[in-house]
Amino acid sequence: MKNIVILISGGGSNMAAIVRAAEQERWAARFNARVAAVISNKPDAAGLALARAAGIATAVVPHKDFASREDFDAALAQAIDAHAPSLVVLAGFMRILTPGFVTRYAGRLLNIHPSLLPAFPGLHTHQRAIEAGCKVAGLTVHQVTVELDHGPILAQAVVPVLPDDTAASLAERVLVHEHRVYPQAIAAWLVETK
Ligand code: NHR
Ligand code: GAR
Asked: 24 CA to middle of ligand 1, Å?
């Protein structure tokens, strides 16, 4: 069985969309894959309750408990490796990962970023897209590499920016497409790495 471990920091709606797709599309039967665990760096992440309700193992590794990023990433890797993952999925995970961590999971570490990379890597993407006068925005699923938001692109979707958009209204529009595209991209990855 291919175990998928999902890392979250907040609401977990992308995580929930992946869990839903895995069930509805019968990933266990078709790809021999399942969501094995959901791990958060924030103890109060709403996504943890969603995961528990879905019967998925959860863990919390609070980044504030660690003196350095290296120490946090080592503890995070230990929690992840308890589930022998074939794939580690960042879904709204908000901590930059050290080179050592990224190297450990090279080729099996994916992220969804809410912009059309290589435009707007980093934080506050929707506000920056609006301020730049972009007429389209979107999302990118990519492999995680040492350089932030620069790994090989697996999938993208384009979403219009409307004249009265705020960062919040644009984020909401993009998120709907994230929930569609991220599960698709993961399913395609599972087929390719069969
Ligand atoms: N780590 C590496 N090495 N490479 C990537 O491509 C990564 C990564 C870690 C996370 C997600 C990313 C995004 O999709 C991601 C990609 C957090 C920050 C950030 O600045 C930036 C990009 C992403 C995630 N985090 C602050 C930090 O100091 C904390 C911000 C907060 O807690 O709100 O780690 O956008
Ligand atoms: C999503 O829009 C995701 O792309 C973004 O945060 C949201 C998380 O929502 N990720 C980042 O900004 C990473 N820096 P969710 O927790 O409901 O999936």
From this structure: 30
